[in-house]
Structure formats: C-alpha cells, structure tokens
Amino acid sequence: MSGADNGAPLRVEGLSLLTSRDILLDRLSFAIEPGEVLALSGAAGAGKTLLLRALAGLAPKGITVLGDIQIRGRRLLVTQDGTLDPLRPLGAQFADLLARQSGMDERAALRCAAEALERFQVPAAARRLALHPHELGEAMRWRAALALAMAAQPALLLADAPAAALDPTQRVRLLSDLAAWTREAGTALLLAGRPHPDPTQPDPARSGLADRRLILAHGRLETPEEEPAPAPPPVEPAPSGPPILSVRDLRVAFPLGRGWRGEERWLTVVDGLSIALAEGETLALLGETGSGKSVLARAILRLIPPVGGQVSWLGTDLAAAPPEAMRRARRDLQILFPDPLAAFDPLMTIGAQLAETLESLRPTRSSADRSARLAEALEEVGLPAAVLDLHPGALRPAEAARAGLARALLPEPRLLVCDEPAAALDGAERADFLALLQAIRRRRRLALLYATQDAAEGLRIARRALVLLLGRIVESADSAVLAAGARHPYSRALIAAAGLARPALHGDPPSPLRPPTGCALRLRCPLAHDGCAQVPPTLDPVAPGHRVACHVAQDEAQDGTQAGGKAP
Asked: What pTM value is reported for the model?
C-alpha cells in the first residue's frame, strides 16, 4: 500500500482479477509517483504478467476486473519478448510511433530515434535505424525496444521482465540506463520480473536500481521486510589427496567448413583449459554466455568430443576409454541440465525413466529392491512417491528440477556436474533447490562442478572458482578471495552485476568467430591500454592460490611486490 497525490501516473485501489472459479489477484492497492521506479517481484506464476496486462487495458478474455485503476497520461507496455515488427526497419517503426504519439515528421522522428538509441549505448545509432530486428543481436534488440518505448515519452512505462534472457552484465547495464532515463524524464516505471525476491539475492531498492519493491505472492501484494544478510556458507577445509578428475590442455572446437581459399575453419570454444578436482571438492565455472562453461562441462563427461587434451577420471583417460570403461565411469559422473523437463522423455513416466537409469548403471537384484531405491531417491529430493506415475509434462518446474536431481543421484555418483541447474526456477523455489543440492552434496561428499552466469550464486556454492572468457581462464582463486577482491575487470563486472550494481564494462561480448587480438576483453575494458591489443595475457600468480590473466592486474601485482621488497 502506498499513498500518492492526484498527480501520480498510476494509482491502483482494490484491484482484483477473477475467473468464474478463482481469485487470481486479490485487492491490490499501490501507486507510483512521477520518476519513481517500482520493482514488482514474485515467483513464476504469481501473476506479474497478468497484472501488467490489466494495467495496460489488455486483460485476457474471461477475466473480470474489479477495483479502480487511475492512469494519468500515456501508458506503454513492453512485453517479455520485447517484440518489434519483424517486417519493418527500426527507423520506420520509430517514425510511425512518434508521428502518432507526438505528431513528429519523419526527419524529426529519426533524429529523436537516434538520440534514444544513443541513450542506451547503441554505437552508430543513426545507421542502425536502417536495420530490421532480425539483423540485431539480442542485447541490441532489447535496447531498441526500450528506446522506442521511451522515445514516445510515456507517463507510465510497464516493463514485463525486460531482457531477462540476457547475461547479468548486459541486463543490469540496460536496466540501469532505463531507470536513469525514467527518473530524468519523470516517467513512472513499473519493472516486473527479475530481480526476484530470493532472500539470498540483493534487494533492487538497496542497489539503487529501483526506489521501492513490492512482492506479489498468492495473489496479494506484500511489502518486503528488512532481511538480514544471508549467512555465509560453512567454510570447508581444503581437499586433501590426489585429484580424482584431472583436465589438461582441453580443447573443444567445431568445424565451420572451408574458407574461400580452401583452408579449414574452426570455431574454438574451449581453448587449452586445465583444471583438477579432488574428492568432495567444489568448483564454480563463472562467465557470460559464450564463455565456454557449458561446453567444458559436457566435454569433461564426453558428451561433446574434444579435439585435444586429456580428461582423466581416477587415472583413466575418458577421451580414449573403450565403451565398457566409459559405461562404468558413467556411474560416477552425472550431470544436471538447465532445462530438466527437456532432459526427460515426454512419452515415458518419471518412474520408468528413473528405473531405466538405475538398471543401466546400477542393476538391482529384484523389482522390490528397485522400487525401494526409486522411492528413497524421491524422498531424498523432497518429492512424493506418486511422482513416479506422472509424465514429465505434469510436473511444475521445481518438481522437474528435483526429479532430475533424483535421477542423477540414483547411480551413486562421485562427481556431479551442474550446468545452470536452477535456470528455470525463480525466487524461493530457486533458493530451496540450491539449498537441497548443497545439503545432499555435503552428506554424500560429492565433488561438484557448478557452471553459472550468476557469480554470487557460484561463489556461494563452491569453495573455488574459475572465471572463463571466450574459452580461457582469466582468473582462478578461492571463492572467498574472489568475492572480496577479484583482480580481473571481467570478474569484477560479473560480481557487480550479481549485486545489481552497474558493471564497468561497456559494449557487448565479442563474437567467438572474430575474437579481438590480444586480450579478449580489451574492447570492453575500462582499464585497457595499447599493450592489451598486442599479446594475450598469460594466467600468472598474483598471490598464493590466486592467478589472473590480465596485463593491468599483473602490473599492479608486480608493483606491489617491488614495493614490498623495498619496505623496511
């Protein structure tokens, strides 16, 4: 509940949305002042999209709208997909909208459009107006969609999970630019979706991204209470003993055919990576999309064939292992995928698929023993035995994630590879699943390889972390060291974005098809100098257990060493 004077662009009093059987939203009341940014959070299915559609006057058919919605001035809704007309260039879309809304002629509209794109850091903005949406990358398309909305000068902008699919570094920069523009223009912004109300995640109001936050839960609005900072994970001792997994100079590349001169062309995704993992150790792989995290995780399990290097599991080279040896290794090596539903066969029940996994890797002596094992696996992940009789399509995302975890645990693995295993979950469901995963890992003393875009999440789960950029390691250290004092600008940007603070990087990630010369980050890095374009930095130690591939960080470390040597 929030009071506002009559000049508030949006005032909602006692808003309810009903069907013939259910109350979807129940007596919502709030207001947004001019230039205010209000973050609306809630778990998947809480009704955020439904609320924004009702506020835009687009409530679905069959929904009864009760209560009072007062809107002063023009309102615009930006949908989750940021849809633009695919058949027309950007300039034409800007010109039509601004002609209708503000009466601008084409020349004035195109000038306004270029200025709007520049506000969202679009390079060569005027030239982009001739492009169609499909000719833009995902991040650039979202900048264009939000620039189009703001160019119309709305009094109220309703943004439904904008840019949710982008990397955190790109999304937070984009939302920061949007929030700054709305405050300057006096536009009220209702920002729904991520950031979500996960108690382990930062409050967008505290980060400055939003002025206030409301939580939509069970059809009602809740004002978030002051939450204590999450307790740090228990400090685990450094692993002892030899590594059970050893990856040396691993290289994964995909053929692109021959160039016009007849030479073979390759897309290198993992470029000479080496890692080691001991019994019970946890390691996070951090990086943006295209950094090589997922490909590395799959190549370790030989789901993607490497073109060079070695993957040794308990002394056996998996790349050269015969089928029977690889089948035995599968018992020890299991993976969780980003979309657990897609990893299940939709035509088979969950029970049939879990039984198939068990019989393939750990055959049981009797059907009673098999049934008992399946029931125990579901109980361990917090699912009822009735799930065994369901097909995957009947599961909610949180249930599918837990069923995928149960299947991975059935062969009693020693290493669990997690590739964004909670990507389909939001809010409390995501926090609960990750807490369950950590509890099971500790109880079973599993080694864990955890790949994620969310640096805060990875550093919280794993004792040690590697930061990947275009298939190479750019920083390696204990998670606590990285969280407190990352040295590489790319690592700092990932951590800043996880805290909803604007990253210092500018521009978009380079294409792996045309990586820049020298340092792969130099075109986006605020610290880059001429030397960064000459030679790629090597991964060198800057402190015990801490290695960085950055010319600037290595210069700073060297200066600090020399200064320390001269100290009395």
From this structure: 0.87
